[in-house]
Fold each of these.
Amino acid sequence: MVDFSTGRINPLARRTDCLVLGVYERRRFTPAAQQVDEATGGALGQLISDGDLAPATGSTVLLHRPRGTSARRVLLVRLGARSGLDDRGFVQAVRAGVRAVAATGSRAVADFLGEAEVPGRLETWRLRRIAETYGDSVYRFDECKSGQDRPPRGRLRRVAISAAVDRAAARRALSEAAAIVAGKRLARDLANRPGNVCTPSHLAENAAALAGEHEAVSVEVLDEEQMRDLGMGALLAVARGSREPPKLIVVEYAGASEADAPIVLVGKGVTFDSGGISIKPGAAMDEMKFDMCGAASVLGAIRAVAGLGLPLNVIGLVPAVENLPDGNACKPGDIVTSMSGQTIEILNTDAEGRLILCDAMTYAERYDPDTVIDVATLTGACVVALGHVVSGLFTNSSELGRALFEAGANSGDPCWELPVWAEYEEPLKSNFADVANVGGRAAGAVTAAAFLARFARERRWAHLDIAGTAWQSGKDKGATGRPVPLLVQYLLDRAGR
Ligand code: BES
Ligand code: MN
Ligand code: ZN
């Protein structure tokens, strides 16, 4: 974890391991870089004219023991053309700076990249992005490595970010960043844990721990019997094949008066998805331990909101199960009755997410919520449609759609809307039950959302399909912590911050 501070910083007087300074095209310095260039007798300009700093945005060069300063190092970062700097370029430069700093072994850093103006963005936005990037950069998941070959941890401890805005605004931006980083860290830790550790009970224990950390958070965990009494036949059908008992985790954050209708966040918590009897192919099946990333992001968002003390009521609902094949597992063709009373023909046991979400959404009705947002690694089809860049957004409210889209864009955790029109319910018709749980290959992400829409009824509702964004595969395999920033930004906006 890193400590953040902010305020006006004198780049020449500051004792630090590294000053991080920006330069636009050619030798167009940001103000702090200009000061350091002058104090060093033009050393920065010299590096550039010697060709040590490539022109591309995010290129960096390191200078040791710069004369005229109290810093051990200066890192100069390319911002690209001043006139063309946008969100993307800014974030790219910030990331590059953070990565280069990490490679130096600096403990304390003073970062001046917030001086770079980005059209349409306040300085507090720049500050928050810089802090989040440093905060995320120190994340490691090494709790399952034996001490012997555990990779060394980074040394970074203190980050000072130069800001001209008033102290209160700057402090608030930093506390938002710290809360988002902490929320993402919880989400990533839970998701990165293997399926034999992160079970439904493990999620329940972690939710309880969250309640222990914050006065305003309370947790209740419903067991199988209680869910049977509620008539959650869809959720329980998925759990049948596993020896791990299912849980419905209810996390309540009370930040506003009881009369304020809550915002309910529902997170898919399939702690391992083998597909069940409709078993998945073996390749990359290990990644189905990430099928609880929706749940993890809901818990992470609540941690952030509680840390910030936002004046809202937020309820997290996490239906948590494991989806395995077994003699007792549900089978294709089985018909179950959901808590809503609708009967469902399970044509494919691998379409289990919607089966647990629908019962959790019906459970949400008891709160008469203002808004319901479910978050789920729901469909491979969403990855085909949108890749790993944006989360899929589906909603029955154009107003909520706009709010979530904006929150995504502003927090750097974007989502993109796909339609959930009545036409997409057509393929879910069943000859035997009220609805089938799959609708064929076409528009698979949309028909999944159309299934959920039947359980949202008239309630203001949105669904985020995070199958492509919640984790990365390959060399850097691991949870990303998305969509914690998007959810927290939406809640900040709702709180009028
Ligand atoms: N958890 C998966 C979705 C998934 C697959 C997310 C791959 C990320 C990567 C979900 O439970 C599932 O299996 N969905 C099926 C639905 C199909 C049977 C209609 C899918 O996407 O193939
Ligand atoms: Mn599945
Ligand atoms: Zn799944």
Amino acid sequence: MGARVALVTGGTGGIGTAICRRLADLGHRVATNYRNEEKARDWQQRMRADGHDIAIVPGDVASPEAAEALVRGVEAALGPVDILVNNAGITRDTTFHKMTPSQWTEVINTNLNSVYNMTRPVIEGMRARKWGRVIQISSINGQKGQYGQANYAAAKAGMHGFTISLAQENARFGITVNTVSPGYIGTDMVMAVPEEVRNKIVAQIPTGRLGTPEEIAYAVAFFIPDEASWITGANLSANGGQYMGW
Ligand code: CAA
């Protein structure tokens, strides 16, 4: 398969960095967005130092206008987007009876509305070119729910509803749409969970450990080659066996 242009949202984060690296290693031209320029430039330098040239474009995926501008920025820098990985996400964990409107809205905007904001500006081009890959990074907690994550689980479950609808609408256009649902991965997001709570969660993972960002990047890359053209609307769990729903 030839080189494609890939846009990975939230690429400077834990899982996002591994996805950017892997797609670049596969020969694709990769871009990500940022909100903090200084941090993003540092990240880009570190990526260059180990041989990965990743384009960075400003833009908050939670804003429809900013998301569209960011897509146009990537198109100007690298060309039309063939592969979109909706990876950007945040947590605002708290039990629902204490949840504030902003804790609800921030998570829904960044984790779910972003999927509309980012996919809308790329889908027509993919349909016109008859090739595309749209991959949502959801979560095990969108599949099973999680104490303290009514906002996050709602957004993550919503992402897969989006996947299976978009997959149907675009199957005839050479576009596959899939979800990867990571379990608990050793990123800053998971390390922010209080240690005592986290240890109890790790004890429930059959493999007995947290996952690595590279293990998620591998699952994302699986959906990209032409050999994967028959796989659309899937939800691929990568969670160390913690949840085996089907
Ligand atoms: N099931 C049942 N009861 C639970 C529970 C659970 N899973 N977790 C906590 N409780 C109980 C506690 O035992 C405690 O009960 P007692 O008061 O009777 O002792 C009560 O709920 C309150 O618990 P906390 O003291 O923890 O309450 P808190 O308000 O300080 O914190 C919380 C609540 C923020 C939800 C905290 O428990 C927490 O951070 N949990 C982890 C949430 C989580 O897994 N987040 C994932 C982040 S990583 C991510 O999101 C990536 C991904 O996709 C996987």
